[in-house]
Amino acid sequence: MPAQNPQHLQFSQNPSLDRAHDKGPEAGESRIPPILRGKTYLDPLYDPAFRAFFSDEAALKDFLDALLRLPPGRRIERLSFTFADPVEFRIPGPKTVVFDIHAFTEDGRFLDIEMQRAKHSFLVDRMLLYSAFLAIKGKQAMESSPESLSLE
Fold this sequence. Notes:
The protein contains five helices and five strands. The chain has 152 residues and is an alpha+beta fold. The chain has a three-stranded antiparallel β-sheet, covered by helices on one side. Strands 2-3 form a two-stranded antiparallel sheet.
């Protein structure tokens, strides 16, 4: 197996698939590994395909545990899907944010998992903004629940 680096993921037992990921194509060489050529696949960068791929919760947990390299005791315990639950804010114009998957780990951590279609500038700023969206959404949910209203 090639030397490990933070971006390296082993996709399969087939080393040629990993090599195809680790380096770009040589002159005239296809980026698509031979085993995958000539077949039709759904593009996971689009929400309908993403949902179809991950409609099996157990398979999704296994996939995310492997992708995130979560050790025992820190693996994903449960998932919450929020595909059809957009959050709307004005920042300064209207903006809708759709969180794809919320994951809760065995050690109590919360993960917001999204599929990005494009490279975004200012990634840290985006992450802070999304964290604020989650906090506001949580506050709105708490304020609208009967339990919090009865405590006033």
